[in-house]
Amino acid sequence: MSKVTQDLEKYAELIISSGCNLQPGQELLLSASTDSCEFARMVTAEAYKQGARRVTVRFADEKISRLHFEHCALEVFKDFPEWQALLSNSMAEKGAAFLSIISDDPLAMVGIDQSKLVEHSRSSYEACKPFQQAIAEGKLVWCIVAAAAPQWAQHVFPQLSAEEAVDKLWQAIFSAVRVNTADPLAAWQQHRKSFDARKAWLNSQHFDRLHFHSELGTNLVVGLNEKGLWQGGGDITTSGTEFFPNMPTEEIFTTPNRLRAEGIVYSSMPLIHYGSPIKDFSLSFKNGKVVDCSAKVGQDVLEAILSIDKGATRLGECALVPWDSPIQQSGILFFNTLFDENASCHLALGKGFSDCFEGGQKLSEDELEAVGVNKSATHVDFMIGTANMSITGIKPDGHELPIFSKGNWAF
Amino acid sequence: MSKVTQDLEKYAELIISSGCNLQPGQELLLSASTDSCEFARMVTAEAYKQGARRVTVRFADEKISRLHFEHCALEVFKDFPEWQALLSNSMAEKGAAFLSIISDDPLAMVGIDQSKLVEHSRSSYEACKPFQQAIAEGKLVWCIVAAAAPQWAQHVFPQLSAEEAVDKLWQAIFSAVRVNTADPLAAWQQHRKSFDARKAWLNSQHFDRLHFHSELGTNLVVGLNEKGLWQGGGDITTSGTEFFPNMPTEEIFTTPNRLRAEGIVYSSMPLIHYGSPIKDFSLSFKNGKVVDCSAKVGQDVLEAILSIDKGATRLGECALVPWDSPIQQSGILFFNTLFDENASCHLALGKGFSDCFEGGQKLSEDELEAVGVNKSATHVDFMIGTANMSITGIKPDGHELPIFSKGNWAF
Predict the structure, then answer these.
(1) Which chain B residue shows the shortest CA-CA distance from A64?
(2) What is the C-alpha separation between B320 and B329, in angstroms, rounded?
(3) Chain B residues with CB inside 8 Å of A87's CB?
(4) Shortest alpha-carbon distance between residue B241 and chain A (Å)
(5) What's the whole-model pTM score?
(6) Is the CB of residue B70 less than 8 Å away from at least one CB of chain A?
(7) Residues ≥6 apart with Cβ < 8 Å to B161
(8) Alpha carbon of A30: minimum distance to chain B alpha carbons (Å)
(9) Which end of chain A is less congested by CB atoms within 10 angstroms, N or C?
(10) Residues in B touching A41 (Cβ below 8 Å)
């Protein structure tokens, strides 16, 4: 067996054991792209090895998806297929684990009419409410991981041949997810624990707001919730199953108050949104709401995000990632949020996290909104961290403490 | 553009235009394997070019399917996923065209517990009754075509490399479906008409039964229905849309009387059933029912077919294909029913065709059964034609007329 095959098998095992923490007799819904078919087979085999009752594999093909968006009328995207909603909702109902293997071409959807993507995202969210609700209530295990595929790999490593680029991207993935350690499962247990001290400190400080500064011009105050919680290093269901929603994960994050962001923030990395790039952009906030936006590339894509619903103009996440994070240090720009968000402090427009609010998993979407947790059909991360970012925590009484200094943890 | 790409595009156009006769604004459900992903993209693009409202592509992966059958408990196959049933049934409800691109590895399921395959087939049929019913009532367009894929190609051409085998199988497919003619669409119009004279003659004769003889030992009398109809060369929906359920198609066929088959029949080609081969087999019939069976290879698979339900032990189809059919003359054994059934006279165990009975499309399954058209969850063709097959038509008064002599049409 080749080294790569061995690493792929270790990775598949890690995903099913640690990412999904799959229980014997549990069902698994695996979403994958046709271009990562072989890895999907390995993951399916591993899930059965670990006792899955049934693995349902849902393949999508980006080139076919692009054809849909090119040719279908806007109204078609308003009509989300009932069978697709039933798939997600019935799997949620039976407590399946939801695993997505992503391998997106960063440019898959360039030039597509953004209003169709917006409609799709909106109708999908509406139709899959029971599934979304189960996630928000902490009832489900879900996990997003990556697989190297030619289009993506060549975007990351444009100077290499497709084959070399795929190999190199696999190596970068293996490194980011600690597959190249002696015992990846133990490495992830250790990784989980490594977040504890910083999370505990942040939660103990009860900051009222954070003040972000960067050399790009960012000068933003993000208001937090009184009952806000900092999370990171993995998640746990209400019934006690530990899992990792994202692999890799390097962030400690919370949900800010939806009504309290003031100032301007500049992006520090390109954002790839549904296969279209947005570059060098800024957002101005007033009373928590985006009141102005500007992008050198992808202004229409950025505006489309903001148009999804009113929640899309407000913040749902505020995440801290030091500049010395292993993914930032790899020097690779992945053009993929799963990686890039773990290389940089970031914010997200759209939906907030119920588990970042004390008792939030027992509240409805509307109740969460009322207490300050943003409600939206979307959630779009964008990177703001830089080598010289400073973040200051401000207490309700105005007392200030440094959180980040020169891009890294200050405590 | 290479010659192969040109031919693939002509083939995609032929499938959507002639096979599906897709109407502007109609939906298409396309089922394909991950290993024919590229061709599925071309067909999807063509469907949109011809005005499809939406193309829903359902990918399956044989290696993953095999994992399911290897690892899931039998009970899992009794529980057909509701979302899958909803997909088929809702598409039928909205009058979508159903297109399947097949590329099956003939040995994909060798060694799999047949009872699981039987349960799957049974529960799928039950759950998709509205879809099945719409087909039986002649309301739907459905079309099965093939795409070359490595596993299948290397089984057909074991002496060639995977790449060479795939190329050669594509050429064989192009030839069988007349893509290598100057105007394939016109060739298929012509082909449709070429069946008319023989169908008309057979329908005018009102044979009571057919007597099959072959040098392999076949000596079988198949009773026909008084109101039976011979079909072939394409189909037409009750609303008047002409389509081709199979491409290629070289057969003229009817549904025999389910209670009247007597004698023994020997297979003339291997039968691949859900990825398991059955070779050199015979079936003995009494009062229309299989009372004995024997296979040199795949006895368990054959017995599994017969165990699906009581209808699986009786005949649902009797099809006439001359030995000089172009597919037989190609000398290629395709190990795939779509091709092999068009190279040889064949019978099918299981479900009969409502459109092979006068007024049959207005009858329920049970009503059809009562008048002699077989009812079953399955339909399995098996080849019996040989170079020396003779078939005699016998009228109700005992008068005999030759239909086949030395393997070919005798009239």
Answers:
(1) B41
(2) 16
(3) 81, 83
(4) 23
(5) 0.95
(6) yes
(7) none
(8) 11
(9) N
(10) 61, 63-64, 67
pLDDT in tens, B61-97: 999 999 999 999 999 999 999 999 999 999 999 999 9
Cα distances from A100 to residues A12, A400, B16, B174, B202, in angstroms, run: 12, 41, 32, 37, 56
Round to whole Å and give the CA distance between A63 and B276: 33
The one-letter code for the residue type at A193 is K
Kindly report, residue by residue over A178-193, the tens digit of the pLDDT. 999 999 999 999 999 9
B68–A86 CB contact, under 8 Å: no
Report the residue of chain A nearest B74, measured CA to CA.
Answer: A53
> Which residue stretches of B94-143 are H helix?
114-127, 129-136
- Tokens 């759209």: give the residue: A350
Complex prediction ipTM: 0.94
CA–CA separation, A118 vs A307, rounded Å?
8
Closest approach of B193 to chain A, Cα-based (Å)? 35
From the list B52, B56, B83, which residue is nearest A90 (CB)? B83
CA distance B358 to B335: 33
Determine, for residues B56 and A90 on separate chains, whether the beta-carbon distance falls below 8 Å: no
* Residue A90 forms contact with B (CB below 8 Å): yes
Farthest-apart Cα atoms in chain B, separation: 62
Tens digits of pLDDT across chain B (411 residues): 788 999 999 999 999 999 999 999 999 999 999 999 999 999 999 999 999 999 999 999 999 999 999 999 999 999 999 999 999 999 999 999 999 999 999 999 999 999 999 999 999 999 999 999 999 999 999 999 999 999 999 999 999 999 999 999 999 999 999 999 999 999 999 999 999 999 999 999 999 999 999 999 999 999 999 999 999 999 999 999 999 999 999 999 999 999 999 999 999 999 999 899 999 999 999 999 999 999 999 999 999 999 999 999 999 999 999 999 999 999 999 999 999 999 999 999 999 999 999 999 999 999 999 999 999 999 999 999 999 999 999 999 999 999 999 999 998
Task: Collect the ranges in chain A with pLDDT lower than 50.
Answer: none
Q: Which residues make Cβ contacts (< 8 Å) with residue B405, sequence separation at least 6?
A: B390
Residues in A touching B46 (Cβ below 8 Å):
none
Chain B residue closest in CA terms to A77: B54
User: Is the Cα torsion angle A48, A52, A54, A59 positive or negative in sign?
Assistant: negative
Q: Which of A70, A75, A83 to mutate to test the interface with B (most CBs of B within 10 A)?
A: A83
Please give the pLDDT value at position B1: 77
